Amino acid sequence: MTTDDRRQFDEDQRRYASAVGADSELQADALSVLERSDRHGWSYTWSWLGLPVIQVPEDIVTMQQIVWETRPEVVIETGVARGGSLLLYASILDMVGEGKVIGIDIDIRAHNRDSVERHPLAHRVSLIEGSSIDPNVVAQVREELAGCKRVMV
């Protein structure tokens, strides 16, 4: 008979994360790698479910964990770019079984809008073109958030 060691695994995971955070030499090395890889466009080499996502893998995994654990009703993404991160959040919310993503950008290019709107997860995504600080955009977002208790920005 095997025992369920998930609690121990979770405790170990937190301990490992704390150790990594406390290791200043490792933090300096990690920052150096990130800065050097950024010079080569590292964050532009990834995609999520067919659309480019302009993030590094560590951020993608971290955001996945946050969305899965917090289960927001709505995720607001300011800066749509090519739509990959919208699909990242939409795919996790789809697995949860509820929720939507609101993507806001000053300039949503037609081909990027088309890629998002034709994707199988489009039913979980709402696109708003305009500035995230424009009062009209803020009002539109507030309208979409009516009744929501858990929102991630």
UniProtKB/TrEMBL annotation:
A Gene Ontology term for the protein's cellular component: plasma membrane
InterPro entries to which the protein is assigned, alphabetical: RNMT_CmcI (IPR007072), SAM-dependent_MTases_sf (IPR029063)
Annotated SUPFAM superfamilies: S-adenosyl-L-methionine-dependent methyltransferases (SSF53335)
UniProt keyword list: Methyltransferase, Transferase
GO-annotated biological processes: DIM/DIP cell wall layer assembly; lipid biosynthetic process; methylation
Molecular function (Gene Ontology), one example: methyltransferase activity
Coiled coil: none
Transmembrane segments: none
One of the Pfam families matching this protein, by short name: RMNT_CmcI
Protein's UniProt name: Cephalosporin hydroxylase
Organism: marine metagenome
